[in-house]
Design brief:
It is built from six helices and five strands, in the order H-E-H-E-H-E-H-E-H-E-H. It has a five-stranded parallel sheet with strand order 2-1-3-4-5, sandwiched between helices. The protein has helices at residues 4-7, 19-32, 43-53, 69-77, 96-105, 120-131; strands at residues 11-15, 36-40, 57-61, 87-91, 109-112. Helix content is 44%, strand content 18%. Strand 3, helix 4 (69-77) and strand 4 form a beta-alpha-beta unit. It is of the alpha/beta class. It is globular and about 30 Å long. Helix 3 (43-53) runs parallel beside helix 4 (69-77).
């Protein structure tokens, strides 16, 4: 069985419309977590950049103008090579029914906002570990 560290993705596509949250998450993911990231400010930008970046994990804000997180996830799933890339939503909308809805759409889990930048990579690892053995599609 692979260790959790070996199975962590290295390339993360992060989509967030708020510039302050984007900046904090970029530091948390790159400097603290050691990930390679593509940071996008909209769903449309994510759909444009994702095929070339080839992410191993997608972190998506739920509430964004234009394309929201679920709509962005659906659009990304339609692109060649991205059909099965794991998705984790990041949101302050944490009602049990909302979390169940995100998971029904195919998300592995939800990271609550505001998030702790020092623990973001551990939260990602925990969601991936919890989902291990589960079909991600």
């Amino acid at each position: 069985m692979e260790s959790k560290q070996q199975s962590l993705p290295q390339k993360i596509l992060y989509v967030e419309d708020d510039p302050d949250i984007r900046a904090v998450a970029e530091i948390a993911l790159e400097d603290v977590g050691g990930f390679t990231t593509a940071i996008c400010e909209s769903g449309a930008e994510a759909v444009e950049r994702a095929p070339e970046f080839e992410p191993e994990l997608i972190l998506l804000d739920v509430m964004m103008p234009g394309m929201d997180g679920p709509t962005t996830m659906q659009a990304l799933r339609e692109l060649d090579g991205l059909e099965t890339v794991p998705v984790i939503f990041m949101t302050a909308r944490l009602q049990k029914s909302e979390i169940e809805e995100y998971q029904a759409l195919g998300a592995l889990g939800v990271i609550p906002k505001p998030f702790d930048p020092m623990n973001l990579s551990e939260q990602i690892a925990q969601i991936l570990a919890d989902a291990a053995g589960r079909d991600f599609r």
